[in-house]
Design brief:
- The protein is mostly helical.
- It folds into 2 domains: 20-110, Arc Repressor Mutant, subunit A, CATH 1.10.10; 140-176, no CATH class.
- Helix content is 47%, strand content 5%.
- The protein has a 3-stranded antiparallel β-sheet.
Length: 176
């Protein structure tokens, strides 16, 4: 089957944002019967954790991934569900895969965000100037968790723990 266990899967993303309007905005989705909508969602979820994230092999087991009662019932009723997926012809492994274009777009967006964050985090902790604790915002804090300001000791603190005066100096010139 196409699902991979959580410990060995290559997909670094354990969740995805479910942009409701991207999916239910499709008139084909609104035309589905209730159980067909469940099949569609089950197939989307299975594609996210697939051995090839975003894709499912069309190997005769889609009815199981969709959680249909029987293969025969799925074959009879799945046409409108499967038309929301596109087919990718045989790949180097000789298998035929299906995918939902919207889910692939979300997957690509999330992988890009993941790698950008990872690169940014690695850069900020590996530059030799910033410690991991500074990155997490745990150094230079008072006991109440807010940063002390030696320049403006009487200034109030923002919700982020920085001094309002420093914040105004930093951001005030940008708004003027």
């Amino acid at each position: 089957m196409a699902l991979v266990s959580g410990s060995s899967r290559r997909n670094p993303l354990e969740w995805f944002p479910f942009y409701v309007h991207r999916f239910i905005g499709d008139v084909r989705y609104r035309a589905l019967k209730d159980y067909q909508q469940a099949w569609f969602l089950n197939l989307l979820f299975a594609s996210w954790v697939s051995e090839r994230p975003g894709y499912l092999p069309d190997d005769g087991q889609l009815w199981r991934l969709a959680n249909a009662r029987t293969n025969q019932y799925f074959e009879k009723e799945s046409g409108t569900v499967l038309c929301m997926f596109e087919r990718e012809g045989s790949t180097t492994d000789g298998r035929v895969w299906i995918y939902n274009r919207m889910m692939l777009e979300i997957y690509d967006e999330q992988v890009l965000k993941f790698h950008k964050r990872k690169r940014k985090s690695t850069k900020s902790t590996d530059d030799g100037m910033t410690s991991y604790l500074d990155f997490e915002g745990t150094l230079n804090k008072k006991q109440n968790g807010r940063e002390e300001c030696s320049r403006h000791p009487d200034s109030g603190l923002t919700q982020w723990g920085t001094c309002w005066s420093c914040y105004a100096e930093k951001h005030g010139s940008q708004t003027a």
